[in-house]
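TASK: fixed-backbone design
INPUT:
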């Protein structure tokens, strides 16, 4: 039987660390194609039949005991390849959901193979039952159940298929080249995302996946490396001038970031190489 639930969320509900935005099941999943407009995380589990998922220039066959994990705002497409493709799904978000998913290493969209698909399916059914009751307390209960679903998914994942690190870095190359050329200018996440023609959130995910750091941590490292070269090029340029040349309007902030990276101030760093 087809089921579909979209809970009405209050402002207070959306302050929860994680909350359900939709859940349901289809006896036959139809063709879905999205350009990146979907704002939530998704888990779509195959119950019967087979389908195909296209995401991040990869193609995956999704069959029983497998499913699709999709991150927000990532273009994707999936469709049946058998006469019947039965699935169930949950979509979710939260006030700190990105940090939670990152800590659990759920950062790549792709296929997940399960060791205990039946148990996870029962948990999704229970989640839908709570949504069907539509009690005032159901949002909190569903949040609790959702966390259990996510932990179960992490526990029972055999592997997550995704792009190799080399492929991810290759995808990042346009923005890495941009930072290398314009590190001395004011940079925003919006400008960095424009170099990749993707959303700001997906830009952050790409940096985490391929380099293990956030975009502006990378920018800081580039700027500090440039500053170190200037500090050692000559001892006639002041620290204040070097700060401005590598993109820092306020020298005090530059000194703080430099010390965080190098464990010494710029002045001491220079003295280590100049007598």
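OUTPUT:
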């Amino acid at each position: 039987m087809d089921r579909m639930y979209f809970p009405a969320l209050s402002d207070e509900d959306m302050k929860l660390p994680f909350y359900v935005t939709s859940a349901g099941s289809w006896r036959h999943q139809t063709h879905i194609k999205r350009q990146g407009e979907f704002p939530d995380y998704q888990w779509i589990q195959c119950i019967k039949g087979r389908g195909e998922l296209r995401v991040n220039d990869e193609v995956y066959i999704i069959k029983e005991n497998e499913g699709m994990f999709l991150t927000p705002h990532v273009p994707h497409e999936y469709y049946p390849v058998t006469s019947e493709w039965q699935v169930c799904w949950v979509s979710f978000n939260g006030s700190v959901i990105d940090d939670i998913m990152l800590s659990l290493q759920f950062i790549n969209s792709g296929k997940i193979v399960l060791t205990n698909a039946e148990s996870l399916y029962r948990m999704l059914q229970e989640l839908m039952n709570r949504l069907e009751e539509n009690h005032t307390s159901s949002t909190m209960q569903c949040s609790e159940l959702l966390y259990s679903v996510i932990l179960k998914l992490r526990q029972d994942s055999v592997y997550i298929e995704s792009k190799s690190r080399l492929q991810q870095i290759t995808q990042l190359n346009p923005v890495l080249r941009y930072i290398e050329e314009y590190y001395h200018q004011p940079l925003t996440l919006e400008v960095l995302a424009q170099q990749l023609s993707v959303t700001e959130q997906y830009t952050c995910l790409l940096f985490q996946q391929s380099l293990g750091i956030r975009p502006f941590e990378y920018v800081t490292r580039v700027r500090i490396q440039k500053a170190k070269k200037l500090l050692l090029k000559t001892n006639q340029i002041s620290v204040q001038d070097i700060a401005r040349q590598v993109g820092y309007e306020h020298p005090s902030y530059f000194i703080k970031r430099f010390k965080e990276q190098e464990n010494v101030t710029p002045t001491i760093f220079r003295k280590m190489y100049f007598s």
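COMMENT: The chain is about 45% helix and 25% strand.
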